[in-house]
Structure formats: C-alpha cells, structure tokens
Amino acid sequence: MKEDLRELYQQVILDHNKSPRNFKKIEEHNHFAEGYNPLCGDKIDVYVLIEDGIIKDISFQGSGCAISKASASLMSSLVKGKPVVEAEKLFEKFHDLITGKLDEENSLEELGKLAVFAGVKDFPARVKCASLAWHTMQSAIKSESSSVSTEEKI
C-alpha cells in the first residue's frame, strides 16, 4: 500500500472509531439484523429504515475493534439516502476491495473514502472485521435473517 494511503487509512480509521457516525438505535426502523464476528469478538446491530426502495435512515450499535466500528460508521454514512440497489452494489465493490478481487488502479477513486480499506486484504483476519457491518446491513435489507456471523460469510 502506498505510504500516503496508509497514513490516510490510519487517520480515517481512528476518526471513525473515536467518533462513529450514526452510532445509535433509530426507533423508526423497518429492517434489522445483528452481526457477530467470533474471531475478533465484534458485535453489531444494524437498524435500517427503507421507504420506496430508498435507505431513508440507517444506524448501528455494538462493540468491536477500530476497523469494525470505522467500517460501520463509513458504511452508514455512505448508504444513507441511497437506493437499496446502489447500497448493494457498493457492498459488492467494497467486499471485492477488501478480499483482493478488485482492480484497485481503476476502482479506488470511485470508492471514495472506502478506498482506505484497501490494505485490509493484506490481513485476512481483518477482512471479517471490515465486512461485518456490511454483511449485517445486507441481511437486514434483504430481511434474510436477524443474525449474521462472519463464520458463515466472506
């Protein structure tokens, strides 16, 4: 990873861990899922309000490592106000980024702040930390299951 991206990565992760965005329970939610990463101990609840195919509001609560919390914070900030279809596409691109399946040179710019997670692919144990909130959001949106474990995903 380039040195400037590594420094930005550290700054963004620390900022979103220290002051996570949307870290609360929204009372008026119509979708919900809880996620758990047994490897790291991360636990997260994701609350989503969807109206007319749009994510009107999204929030999360829980505890976990800095990567997990920062990922949830960025995710919630980026998908709020977006169509569900767009949020799902963003999840796929993010997942491809952190698992090393994305052509970084052509795709980092379109991922915006999420590009700071590019280095996660070099630490396989951290992929689950970074993806937990995203898998949990996806489960909530699809109303598949109210409980998600990283041992079942990736």
Structure report:
This protein has 154 residues and is of the alpha+beta class. The chain has a single domain (3-149), classed as Sufe protein. Chain: A, CATH 3.90.1010.10. The protein has five helices and four strands. It has helices at 3-18, 66-79, 84-98, 104-111, 124-142, and strands at residues 31-37, 42-51, 54-63, 147-149. The chain has a four-stranded mixed sheet with strand order 3-2-1-4, covered by helices on one side. Helix 1 crosses helix 2, helix 2 packs parallel to helix 5 and helix 3 runs antiparallel to helix 5. The longest helix has 19 residues, at 124-142. It starts with a helix and ends in a 5-residue tail after the last strand. The relative contact order is 0.21.
Compile the SSE list and pairings.
Layout: H1 3-18, E1 31-37, E2 42-51, E3 54-63, H2 66-79, H3 84-98, H4 104-111, H5 124-142, E4 147-149
Parallel strand pairs: 1-4
Antiparallel strand pairs: 1-2, 2-3
Keywords for this structure?
154 residues; alpha+beta; Sufe protein. Chain: A; 5 helices
Q: Which stretches are low in confidence, meaning pLDDT under 50 for 5 or more residues running?
A: none
- Provide the residue-averaged pLDDT: 89
- Looking at the structure, the CATH topology is Sufe protein. Chain: A
Strand content: 15-25%
CATH architecture verdict: Alpha-Beta Complex
Shape: globular
Short description:
With 154 residues, the protein is α+β, with helices and mostly antiparallel strands.
